[in-house]
Amino acid sequence: MKLDSKIPSGPVASKWDRARFENKLVNPANRRKFTILVVGTGLAGASAAASLGEQGYNVKSFCIQDSPRRAHSIAAQGGINAAKNYQNDGDSIYRLFYDTVKGGDYRAREANVYRLAQSSVSIIDQCVAQGVPFAREYGGLLDNRSFGGSQVERTFYARGQTGQQLLLGAYSSMMRQVADGGVTLYPRREMLDLVVIDGKARGIVVRNLITGELETHAGDAVLLATGGYGTVYYLSTNAVNSNVTAAWRAHKRGAAFANPCYTQIHPTCIPVSGEHQSKLTLMSESLRNDGRVWVPKKQGDSRPPEQIPESERDYYLERKYPSFGNLVPRDVASRNAKQACDDGRGVGESGLAVYLDFADAITRVGEDVIRMRYGNLFDMYNRITDEDPYKVPMRMYPAIHYTMGGLWVDYNLQSTVPGLHVLGEANFSDHGANRLGASALMQGLCDGYFVIPYTLAHYLGSTTLPAVSTDHDAFKEAKASTQARINTLLSVKGNQTIRGFHRKLGRIMWDYAGMARTDAGLRTALEEIPKLREEFWNTVSVPGDQNNLNQSLEHAGRVADYLEFGELLVRDALNRTESCGGHFREESQTPDGEAQRDDEHFSYVAAWEFQGVGKEPVLHKEPLVFEEVHPTQRSYK
Amino acid sequence: MATISVKLKIWRQDGPGKPGRLVDYTADTVSTDMSFLEMLDVVNEGLIKKGEDAIAFESDCREGICGACGLVINGVPNGPVRGTTTCQLHMRSFKHGDTITIEPWRAKAFPVVKDLVVDRSAFDRIIGAGGYVSFNTGGAPDGNCLPISKDVSEAAMDMAACIGCGSCVAACKNAAAHLFTSAKITHLGLLPQGQPERYTRVVRMVDQMDAEGFGNCSNEGECEAVCPKEISISGIARMYRDYQKAALKG
Questions:
Q1: What per-residue confidence (pLDDT) applies to A580?
Q2: Which of B137, B148, B197, B198 is the best substitution to test chain A (most A C-beta atoms within 10 A)?
Q3: CA of B248, closest CA in chain A: separation in Å?
Q4: What CATH number belongs to A265-401?
Q5: Rounded distance between C-alpha atoms, residue A542 and residue B32, angstroms
Q6: Domain edge (last residue) among B69, B93, B113
Q7: What residue numbers bound the domain in which B80 lies?
Q8: pLDDT bucket at B1, cuts 50 / 70 / 90
Q9: Any catalytic annotation for residue A69?
Q10: What is the DSSP string of A522-577?
């Protein structure tokens, strides 16, 4: 396997122009001859399907939900970055590029990030034109707010529902194409295998989740926009049906998986309340614009917050990082919350929480303004915890939120399997080892609206693609092996629940490959995961049969894949003995507890090649070259 | 944290068009901090352990925004708390010993798929009929070239907040989809971007809504009362006005 990143030559600012000029095109009249299979309908998948449908390609769109509008992008709250400099505060494409490379702790590809920053301005224009109701100022112009890791206001938002509004914009464009016949919708389909013919991705196997039938679909290219793998930790802010299955099955068919150990732990989530918990709820990072994070100075201080005087509170982010204060990047905020709790100064019943306090902001601007800014978030917090954040500080603890790793892609978003392109959170390319807030929406829409339409045309225009049909042996083989896996799951007939296994796996991942990782812990995980996998295949109970809606079977298939994937994540974390961004190896920290990179040995993308379940994968390295931003110890002080 | 037990009567139906029935279950030692769906997760775990078919119900984000969940709880969509999706309902809203009846959305245009799962694809087709601004990717003017007053933008956002869950249809004795359809029509109809297609949009979306088999509006406001996003029925009046204007325009 050879990793060719295909980064265009020349200065960073002109690479994308150059690529677009040099890329092959497909004549408008020829586009309908190409069938493009798009899996996933989040921001990346929906924007890609809509844009390609508009261009005249024959697009088939697949999603596991009953409607494409429910993809988990919908839950993104806070906002989307764009280098518009509307606030006249010194923003520029170069500054957004710089902040993102630095925020990612110098583990992202410069060329990709620059293109992302360039496209960011078009994304806002595009969404406004679709009728996305972004927040506005009284003069009628677009409003901005700040997000972590930046000292300018460049985040556009629609109350606390930015992801929803952006997704509904992309979804409405896609539905217009569905009505016009450019896009055919296949909801309630789960991709279970990738079909590779003559070394190229030519189709997929999906299970119709209503009838249980295994369907095969042939095409000229496959686009995976299937999101991240956060639910390998069981508890995360992801939707409960989010999964790694499509990406993992593609990995097993030859797509390299890059940097799986880069996971993002979001600092402000509602703490766990008990064993029954099925998911964690995030409270937007935008809250840190007005909320102040603190814990008591004294260990084990169990007084209610209002009885702890100002002088006995430690606003530790403001104290340690005076220039960024409460708006430090997520990895830094999360680690500090963990340190405060490990130090015995955590709050709440479990001691695993810190306060996020709005009292000062309410005094400064009034409750009405705070309600306008964050009303829906405060309501959500109140519903879940039964506490009123207008009166008492929120309790927050970090939780798994986003995964920066994903299938390896080149500059054109193509994986190591020609024809298989990967978009959005499912790929690895733009966020390095830590994603800045309000950058995920930007990346998803950038990939779908403004990158793939050009790079896919290049692939189609420069590749010989003989017609294939689903009668081809490769389709039959993929379908048969998918069926065999389903048969095995149904035939175990043990007495252990699927959720029980998922919970146990999540526990291993969180304990040993969570916020802090050590050599010994990771090695323990490498012993425990295969044991759990074996137990799963011997004792799991998957009731019902294949031929109707069977949510137990769906969940079992996803957990089975996680029991393989989790091992890869741990291996990657073990291999990377440095700390960077969200990947914190306790052995590698600065004297004041910050992540200590090791550029000499680890300035590379780790791309893993599958060798078989339980077999050690082969590591391929793509060196990271920094021509513009000089890697330094990240400082937010 | 308190613990309660509750009796459940849950609609079980093997598939579309098959007969269904209410089946009795008990949920013991339910923490009042649990969400309603987590309580059902626990019931399902018990069934799976016994090798019995789990109760099918939908959910995904479990934070009240994706619109996948939605159950009729004691006769009311999403249960006793106003402005809440089913996934955001918590067991602290119930008392020890309560009997809770759980049914799917019931509407001709939302056929039952299995147990508590219904087919809401009619909503997608209503959006496909006109719930968009016809604008291809690329070539958009600068986002700030079109100032929109804050009031208008906020009013549009109030309507755009719809999550497409179908509670409005489930609450309506006519199974009408007027609240859903009018929310999109009003969101786009208020904004300058939506003006060029304003009248073709309303006709196409309303016609599609009728073709899907949703009922008519008799103005009782049950939709607004159960809407988890508290979307106002004022949009329905606007939808009628625009539809009439469109008819006059021909």
A1: 96
A2: B137
A3: 26
A4: 3.90.700.10
A5: 29
A6: B113
A7: 3-113
A8: low
A9: no
A10: HHHHHHHHHHHHHHHHHHB---S-SSS--HHHHHHHHHHHHHHHHHHHHHHHHH--
